[in-house]
Design brief:
The complex is a heterodimer of chains A (about 140) and B (about 425). Chain A has about 140 residues and is of the alpha+beta class. Chain A is built from five helices and six strands; from the N terminus they run E-H-E-E-H-E-H-E-E-H-H. The two termini of chain A are about 20 Å apart. Helices cover about 30% and strands about 25% of the residues of chain B. By secondary structure, chain B is of the alpha/beta class. Chain B folds into two domains: about 325 residues, 3-Layer(aba) Sandwich (Rossmann fold); about 100 residues, ANL, C-terminal domain (GMP Synthetase, Chain A, domain 3). Classes of the chains: A alpha+beta (about 140), B alpha/beta (about 425). At the A-B interface, strand 1, strand 3 and strand 4 of A face helix 11 and strand 20 of B.
Chain lengths: ~140, ~425
């Protein structure tokens, strides 16, 4: 249920995002989802990719700081209010550190880093909320 | 602790009284000699009405005028020679920030003494004739490469004179030739250690000892190099005007750097009064050379700040010991009226226990007539978090610790690894963008 997110430290300077993405591209690592958190001085690039372990390895080889973080990717229907319903279930028990969403075909997905992922999983299961498995998530772009 | 070997117990372990007697005898001789053979010193003596006969022993040393680096520059290149030029066997030097070199001259006997001093240091570091010493200090005018080389020759060890640069080739030679010791600047040692680790070659090395000097470094940095490579590192000190590396080094107890007191008289002087700072107090290190022939120096101001102890060391040596340097009077930056040394920043970064490698750079700017100190710190994998909150925490913690240590507010900037230039010579730790001249 937990998915490995690839996180990269980027300095705020021209071309730093490009460099990281080019390294992944050269090694045939696909991006499934991406979010860029920025501050005045640096940014953190968070990505779901086709092979996070390899992604971390190739970025590190090029001298970038990259880590793997456990996240959950929930699936929500294309319906008004569907995300808020899921969040309501989670809100009383766990905290969301950050979140980003992407839409792909039949439903939408939200990637979340949660303070207590085990607890979150319990709540999601109890409420029959679907999540992507790691294998699915890494290859979402190839699924019909 | 390994068994202590001492190359010259008579000189390295003599009592304080014996040392004082020997130094007095040699001081009287060198003063007489420079008055006779060095027009530079003869003039200096006459200017203050000092006669060689006024110096009867080390108790009179404070009567002798100081010698400064500026005087060396003004009398560039041979103005301080006390022997005919034909007796000079070699020159060494350092590049000054003002463009002109500082040149030091040596007779063959000076070179031999230098080699002997370095050999004593190497013995102190547990090296012997069976060691293979890989020297990646620069060879050339810089005293680092040649000085270590002379010492290794005196010791009878095998020398690999690699000189600086080309880290890949350095590692290849170290591995292939089975180096047991490396000699280089501490910042380059750190760079080498990281490169060897990253290449997965730590276990392929036979290294056991590192001898590092020529720039200030901290105990934490020493431990890091030691931990990565599984070696023991020593701090060697010297400056080309006085001789070169080998004037002092620390022993396996790492409780200060032993000064070769039979060849050099150290003094620690309060920079404000230029009078003795007293044992244990920080001041400027001043050297008088006792045996150098070509370019004897009397009370040469090193601009290095440290303190001294005369207590006998656990290793058995009686030589006075100076602490790790607290900085240089000219590296010191006055920022908003506060004295700041790069070593303070380094110590603080490491002491935070974040495993932060000492890759940092201080940038001093002046904005709206206010000094601003920015410390750039490289973000390494082990303390990177994908949460902005935690990264900002880290930044705040570094800023807080630096403020506490330095006494001024510091702007911290987190940068990607390897953005700060790794030097293969001396590290550039401070960039001062203020135009104060």
């Amino acid at each position: 249920m937990l998915i490995k997110q690839l996180s990269v430290f980027l300095e705020n300077r021209q071309g730093s995002l490009c460099e990281a993405l080019e390294i992944l591209g050269r090694h045939d690592i696909d991006l499934i989802a991406l979010s860029l958190a920025d501050t005045t001085e640096y940014g953190i690039l968070r990505m779901i990719v086709s092979d996070p372990v390899e992604g971390q390895k190739v970025l590190r080889e090029q001298g970038l700081t990259a880590s793997l973080t456990d996240v959950i990717a929930i699936r929500v229907a294309h319906a008004t209010g569907s995300l808020s319903k899921v969040m309501r279930k989670l809100a009383d028990e766990v905290n969301v550190e950050y979140m980003y969403a992407f839409a792909n075909g039949e439903d939408a997905s939200a990637v979340m880093k949660i303070s207590d992922p085990v607890k979150a999983k319990e709540i999601l299961d109890q409420n029959n909320i679907k999540v992507w498995t790691a294998e699915e998530a890494y290859h979402l772009n190839q699924m019909k | 602790m390994r068994e202590e070997r001492i190359r010259d117990p008579k000189m390295e372990c003599m009592s304080r009284d014996e040392a004082a007697a020997l130094q007095s005898e040699k001081l009287v001789r060198v003063v007489e000699r420079v008055y006779k053979d060095s027009p530079f010193y003869a003039r200096k003596f006459r200017e203050i009405g000092l006669e060689p006969g006024d110096i009867k022993g080390i108790e009179d040393i404070s009567k002798i005028p100081f010698t400064t680096k500026e005087e060396l520059r003004e009398n560039y290149p041979f103005g301080l020679l006390a022997v005919p030029k034909s007796q000079v066997a070699r020159l060494q030097g350092t590049s000054g920030t003002t463009g002109k070199l500082t040149i030091a001259s040596y007779t063959q006997s000076d070179v031999n003494m230098w080699g002997e001093c370095v050999a004593r240091c190497m013995t102190m570091g547990g090296l012997s004739e069976s060691d293979i010493i890989h020297v990646c200090y620069g060879y050339g005018l810089f005293t680092g490469g040649m000085g270590i080389d002379f010492g290794a020759r005196a010791l009878g060890a095998m020398v690999i004179p690699m000189s600086a640069g080309n880290t890949k080739r350095q590692i290849m030679c170290m591995e292939d030739l089975g180096a047991t010791a490396i000699a280089c600047t501490p910042s380059y040692a750190m760079h080498l250690a990281e490169s060897i680790r990253d290449a997965g070659k730590v276990d392929d090395m036979k290294l056991r000892v590192g001898i590092h000097g020529a720039e200030p470094w901290t105990v934490e940095m020493r431990h890091q190099i030691e931990d990565i490579l599984g070696i023991e590192c020593y701090d060697i000190y010297g400056l080309c005007e006085v001789m070169g590396p080998g004037v002092a080094m620390d022993c396996q107890y790492h409780k200060g750097l032993h000064i070769q007191h039979d060849h050099f008289i150290p003094e620690i002087l309060d920079p404000a009064t230029m009078e003795s700072a007293g044992e244990g107090n920080i001041g400027e290190l001043v050297f008088t050379t006792l045996d150098k022939e070509a370019m004897p120096l009397l009370r040469y101001r090193t601009k290095d700040l440290t303190d001294i102890t005369y207590e006998t060391c656990e290793c058995g040596r009686t030589q006075p010991r100076i602490s790790k340097f607290k900085g240089r009077t000219d590296d010191m930056k006055v920022i908003r009226g506060v004295n700041v040394f790069p070593t303070q920043v380094e110590t603080t970064l490491l002491a935070m226990g974040e495993g932060i490698l000492p890759h940092y750079q201080m940038i001093v700017d002046r904005k709206d007539n206010m000094d601003v100190l920015t410390v750039m710190v490289e973000v390494e994998d082990r303390f990177f978090s994908d949460e902005i909150r935690l990264m900002d925490d880290l930044k705040a913690r570094i800023g807080g610790a630096l403020k506490q240590a330095l006494g001024i507010a510091v702007k911290v900037k987190l940068v990607e690894p390897k953005t700060i230039e790794r030097s293969e010579g001396k590290a550039k730790r401070v960039i001062d963008n203020r135009n104060l001249v």
